[in-house]
Amino acid sequence: MNWSLFFDLTVSGLTLGSLYALIALGYSMVYGILKLLNFAHGDVYMIGAFVGWYTLHALGGPLNPTISGAAVLFVMFIVSMLGCGVLGVAIERFAYRPLRNAPRIAPLISALGVSIFLQNSALLIFGASFRDYDTFDLIGVKTFSVGQLFFSVTQLLTVVVAVLLMVALTIFVARSRLGKAMRSTSFDREAASMMGIDVDRVIAVTFFIGSALAGAAGVMFGLVFGQIYHYMGFIAGLKGFTAAVLGGIGSIPGAMVGGLIVGLAESYATGYLPQGSTFQNLYVFALLIAVILIRPSGLFGTAAIQKV
Amino acid sequence: MAAGGGSGVPPDRSGPADAPDSPRIGVDEWVASVEGKRERYTGLRGRLTREWDHLPPPARVLVFAIPAAIFPLVTTEGNLFRYGLFTLIYALLALGLNIVVGFAGLLDLGYIAFFGCGAYLYAILASPQFGYHWQAEAAIPVIVLGTAIVGLLVGLPSRRLFGDYLAILTLFFGQAFVIFVNNANRISFPFVGHTDLTGGSNGIANIDPFNFFGYKITTTRQQYYFLLIGVSVFLVLLMFVNDSRTGRAWRALREDPLAAEVMSIPVNRLKLLAFVCGAAAAGFTGAIYGTIATAALPGDYDVGLLITIYAIMILGGFGSIMGIVVGAIIVSSVPELLRSSANARPLFYGAILLALLVKIRPWRLLAAELGGLVAFGFVVHAIAEAAYPRLVDGKALGSGTVAHALDHWMLLPQHPVKIADFAYISLIAAVVVYPQLSRLWRALLLAPLLYLVMFVWENLLLVQIGGATRLVLLGALLVALMNVRPQGLFGTATVEIV
Q1: In terms of residue numbers, what domain contains B250?
Q2: Poorest-confidence range of A225-239, B24-38, B95-109, B153-167?
Q3: Dihedral angle computed from the Cα positions of residues B127, B129, B130 and B134, in that order, rounded to the nearest 10 degrees
Q4: Which of A91, A237, A305, B334 is the most exposed place for a label (fewest CB within 10 A)?
Q5: Residues B351, B294 share a domain
Q6: In this structure, are B105 and B241 located in the same domain?
């Protein structure tokens, strides 16, 4: 067995996986509370990547930034997360809240509408061409090695930021008052509202956090892969959803583990399976279909009991 | 479950989420249905509805088929191709999708892949790609059977899954199809070895026209009539199916799968049947599309078309057969009309005016708003002319009095790219913030908001009318329609019982 190839694949899989985990968290949290498949989530992630790009260029571009490289990165993450969070809240307010009591298919269609709207607005404003993040000019091409694992700076940064965000989210959901309200709303919305929890506010906060995480993932994608384009949200959204389902939709640790599994699976498929670099997406989808059929509630999910 | 066919939900977007009118919670189902029937059958409209309901299905189809049959006689070949053929193809596709989603209530997001399967199968059977040139009477049954089998395979998981999981699984199937046909020229198959099955991203070109026993369907007119016969036959079939035992069982399945199962309805078999029927219809349509387009390209079978077909079905109302035909006419012809700025401008402003007429009462307020808008435009234009002449150095697209008048009223920079992008983003932000304002502010800020809308329209949307604009508008329309009338134009609101 070729160990260096294996380690390379593992590292890129972990990087991809932390991106997918961040996207999956947004899906999972929203689904947990509203039982809604937020199709527009992938496009929020795409908008996040573009907000990051514009921030980078507002600060002088990658070649001669007005402030130091690390500060540029920090500002990019913050602006993109805030922007996406606000966008997520606006989407919820307009496309989902009026439909909370409508037939189940209506919000799904509305979500499709938001997705196509965002995607084509991006095409309208940003154009169809690729945009370059020029990461190498910004932070250089240093590589670290831990034993035989070789990390590039961006990969390390991605994984570390993702882990930090996930730890922060876990603490927030587990410890804070609002996190408690989120958990109870996702457990039973009606009962929560009867207990005096402002459900609308909790849902808005959920959308804010989920979309902010997607925005961070968008910036990370730009940093790791260099190029962003208006259509990137669709496939990434699908993968994020795959990760959420894999881990058990509605479960936060599930989304994280699911994201890592999807990322690693994609990476290994590219390296080891026949025609992997062409069909890696097909292999990921096949993995999802297998999981849905064998264990529909996912790895960490609990089987829903249907009351009549 | 149906109540109040015509009554619908009043378009009040700013109201609280659970306003007493959205679904009618707490009303007894039987009472509600009687109430709904009574409401439906009063006045002139009620009489028309009653007459319509009493027509036998073939006669109802004639109401649509006769004008459609006359259409080619009064229009040119080019218009027939642009409006006629695509309307019929969309209608056929949406009717097939309606079996799966509208009748049986299974959310199938991979539907377009069956359409693509049909087109590619016909392309393989009747094109120079492999040198086969099958007759249509042999190829069509094979294609319908082939796509039906694919439908059966994709439908198999539906026995265990429901709702969103099924949706996502079928969406993946649709994506997998696109990836497959895009790359199938590079893979080698077991037993056969390396073959170029689908032509990769170049697709398969030079597909034969339909050839029935030596009679070739080549001209647009022949294709149109062939499609029209297909749609009409399909419509009659669907109407009979809708009233049949199977149709009722499907509806029961859609309304409540659990209750249906308890009533000893064979749920799994019905789900598979719906998938198979939908797939077969899509495969048939795909074969027709293949001959019309004379090429099978992977890009044609992507999410864009899926959303268009869903928009048709939603606009028409789930499960409403004639509604879908109306939806197909609207969705396929409006974007075509929007292609030229001469048509697009009146349509857009007309739609805005109509929305204002519906939303703003009393009349005096509306008149004041419109007057304010005109005055606001002149003031802004005058200020810009004095202070920033670069904002007004362009010209409105197109010619005629409207474009001419706009030159003196609207800000039209010669190089609008940056400012128009900025205006577009601020417009989205403004639309988000606007409903949260108090009444007074809303009344005061309506004129500037409308001016902003028109600015974005003239400087950004109208410029890209052939490309992204139409899809942007389609997306916004879907969201707005779901807000105003979740059951679609011709659908019936369901009554929720608590």
Answers
A1: 55-301
A2: B24-38
A3: -10
A4: A305
A5: no
A6: yes
Chain A residues touching residue B23 (CB < 8 angstroms): 101-103
Rounded Cα distance between A79 and A66, Å, is 16
Which residue, A65, A36, A275, A24, is CA-closest to B183? A275
Residues of B in Cβ contact (< 8 Å) with A115: 475
pLDDT digits over B59-87, tens only? 888 888 888 888 888 878 777 777 888 89
Q: Are residues B238 and B362 in the same domain?
A: no
Q: For A130-145, what is each residue's pLDDT tens digit?
A: 888 877 666 666 677 7
The verdict on B275 and B361 lying in the same domain is no
Inter-chain touch B180–A120, beta carbons under 8 Å: no
Model confidence band, residue A129 (pLDDT cutoffs 50, 70, 90): confident
B113 has a pLDDT exceeding 90: yes
Q: Residue B98 and residue B325: Cα distance in Å, rounded?
A: 11
Nearest to A288 among B17, B172, B467 (CB): B172
* ipTM for the whole complex: 0.81
Give the gap in angstroms from C-alpha A175 to the nearest C-alpha of chain B.
Answer: 30
Number of domains within chain B: 2
What is the bridge-based pairing of β-strands B188-189 and A131-132?
Answer: unpaired
Pairing of strands A149-152, A227-228: unpaired
Residues A20, A240 contacting (CB under 8 angstroms): yes
Q: How confident is the model at residue B416 (pLDDT cuts 50, 70, 90)?
A: confident
Q: Do residues B348 and B295 both lie within one domain?
A: no
| Residues 6 or more apart whose Cβ sits within 8 Å of residue B275 | B100, B106, B108, B151, B152, B154, B155, B158
Nearest CB partner across the interface for A308, out of B160, B186, B258: B258
Is residue B362 scored above 70 in pLDDT? yes
User: Is the domain of B127 the same as that of B255?
Assistant: yes
pLDDT tens, position by position, A272-291: 887 777 788 888 888 887 88
B268 lies in the same domain as B138: yes
What mean pLDDT is predicted for residues B332-340?
A: 76
Q: Domains plus CATH for chain A?
A: 3-294 (1.10.3470)
Of B22, B169, B479, the CB nearest to A113: B479
- What's the gap in Å between the CA of A104 and the closest CA on chain B? 9
Query: Is the pLDDT at B131 greater than 50, yes or no?
Result: yes
| pLDDT, average across residues B468-479 | 81
- Please say which residue of B245, B270, B301 terminates a domain: B301
- φ/ψ region of B135 (left if φ > 0, alpha if ψ in -120 to 50, else beta) reads beta
Asked whether residue B147 is assigned to any structural domain, the reply reads yes
Same domain, B104 and B187: yes
Q: Is residue B497 part of a domain?
A: no
Q: Is residue B318 part of a domain?
A: no
**DSSP string computed for B153-178:** HHHGGGGT--THHHHHHHHHHHHHHH
**DSSP 8-state code for residue A44:** H
